[in-house]
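The step that takes the researchers longest sounds almost clerical: writing a folded protein down as plain text. Below is the pair of lines this work produces for a single protein:

——
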Amino acid sequence: MKKHTNGAVLPSVVLAPPGAKRSEAERSEAERNVAPGGAKTMPESEVVAKAQRRQFTTDYKKRILAEADSAGQPGAVGALLRREGRYSSHLTHWRQQRDLGLSPHRRGPKSKQDPLAETVRKLMQQNDQLTQRMARAEIIIDVQKKVSLLLGIPLAAVDNGGSNS
């Protein structure tokens, strides 16, 4: 907030004289961490280029869920979560995963293709090939019948399941 006095603008903060010391409460974090008489160094503030998503193994999830489920005393689950640095939402999500089999799900867009489509395509192709072979075999058999009639060669009788009729 600025104060106006005789047309002049005065700052609302009181400025200390140049040689004045600040009280303990006013010292910055860097000044408080330095021992008296020690050299002042800047704290390291390395910024990670890209954040990594936390990934927990299936064994870890099962172990934490087993500990949480076996906790009998009041506050034991909270102590477990604080010790492991996890949240109760982790337990909820992991229990849902456990009910579904606790298997990792593939991330990213779902496939538009039916998983059985490739099998169906192969079976249909095989069916078409077998149908063509059967048609050729029937043509060959018809030609053989006609040739045997022309040459007067008798055809062998077809045995139908061993019955004599």
Observations:
- The mean pLDDT is 77.
